[in-house]
Task: inverse folding
């Protein structure tokens, strides 16, 4: 977008009285995180990580018990790529609130997932032995 | 008037820390420069919604993680999941996320034709994803592996189906966006809606990354 067109549009829409969204009107609308090249880079990185995930999961090149760790690492990396290049969660000054909200969201997600797994495995380990045939699958939990 | 038009400066949006003082600049989030712009405020509110949606998904993921081994003598993920189809679904969704971003770039450039083209491609890829998922569900239920079969299958249908419902809702929103941009043009409120739709669609892709990793790839392993 040229600077000229941005100026034209801001003068065109300056008096939008029906607009009830909070905050100052801002029509610079500069594309964050680099526009099309940013999306291309994000797509490339995400595709690379996805292909790596499927390759490591199916090829047997990784030691079997380590596969979940590898896959989860790749998934976290890919989520990071999506956040930066697609959702534009950056370290920029106007992004501070978004980053803090994201940190809080990650905390809650971690509590829910890890807490649930921990509690349910613990309960399972404390279950009375069941009659043969009705026994649930064993977890091999350390708790 | 826009920041760029006023100062003639094009700043790096990735720059760490504060911008230099004494310049006319957009709101910084540090109490400088007056209230934040509407685009930033609206995007922040929608981001809070997306995070709460992700928290809801985390409960489904926790249920799946707890129940994944409880197959009640029925089939496990290893026997049910078809990796090629999951790979195709992943490709559709990732590509649609990319085209959705290009649609946003085109809309920022006020380019009606390319905005509509990219949004249409986004919708078609999303529909292809949904068709593949529906095909998988129908096939599983036809084989007697419905959600009632075992706790594992209940959790599986819940978490994957919930994501599928979100994609369906996203497709409806996408159709609405195309119509609104077509009829109402690139009005500021429509542009913010478009931006929120982009956030929503990209967030769905993030959830799918967690899904194909935890449910399909790890579930298909031993």
Result:
């Amino acid at each position: 977008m040229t600077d000229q067109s941005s100026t034209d549009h801001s003068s065109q829409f300056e008096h939008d009285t029906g607009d009830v969204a909070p905050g100052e009107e801002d029509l610079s609308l500069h594309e964050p995180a680099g526009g099309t090249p940013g999306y291309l880079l994000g797509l490339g990185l995400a595709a690379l990580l996805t292909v790596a995930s499927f390759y490591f999961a199916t090829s047997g090149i990784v030691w079997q018990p380590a596969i979940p760790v590898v896959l989860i690492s790749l998934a976290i990396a890919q989520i990071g790529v999506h956040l930066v290049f697609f959702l534009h969660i950056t370290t920029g000054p106007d992004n501070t609130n978004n980053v803090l909200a994201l940190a809080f969201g990650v905390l809650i997600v971690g509590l829910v997932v890890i807490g649930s797994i921990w509690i349910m495995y613990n309960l399972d380990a404390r279950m009375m032995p069941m009659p043969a045939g009705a026994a649930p699958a064993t977890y091999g939990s350390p708790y | 008037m826009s920041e760029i038009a006023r100062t003639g400066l094009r700043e790096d949006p990735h720059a760490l820390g504060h911008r230099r003082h004494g310049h006319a600049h957009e709101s910084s989030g540090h109490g400088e420069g007056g209230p934040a712009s509407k685009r930033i405020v609206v995007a922040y509110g929608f981001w809070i919604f997306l995070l709460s949606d992700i928290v809801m998904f985390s409960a489904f993921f926790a249920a799946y993680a707890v129940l994944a081994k409880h197959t009640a003598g029925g089939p496990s993920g290893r026997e049910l999941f078809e990796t090629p189809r999951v790979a195709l679904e992943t490709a559709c969704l990732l590509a649609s996320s990319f085209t959705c971003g290009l649609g946003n770039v085109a809309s920022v450039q006020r380019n009606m034709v390319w905005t509509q083209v990219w949004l249409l491609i986004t919708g078609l890829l999303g529909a292809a994803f949904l068709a593949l998922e529906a095909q998988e569900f129908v096939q599983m239920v036809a084989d007697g592996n419905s959600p009632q079969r075992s706790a594992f299958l209940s959790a599986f249908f819940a978490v994957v189906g919930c994501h599928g419902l979100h994609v369906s809702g996203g497709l409806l929103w996408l159709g609405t966006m195309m119509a609104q941009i077509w009829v109402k043009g690139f009005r500021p409120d429509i542009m913010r809606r478009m931006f929120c739709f982009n956030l929503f669609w990209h967030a769905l892709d993030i959830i799918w990354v967690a899904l194909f990793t935890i449910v399909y790839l790890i579930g298909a392993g031993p």
Observations:
- Confidence is low (pLDDT under 50) at residues 1-15 of chain A.
- Chain A touches chain B through 75 residues (CB under 8 Å).
- Chain A is about 60% helix and 0% strand.
- Residues 25-90 of chain A form one domain.
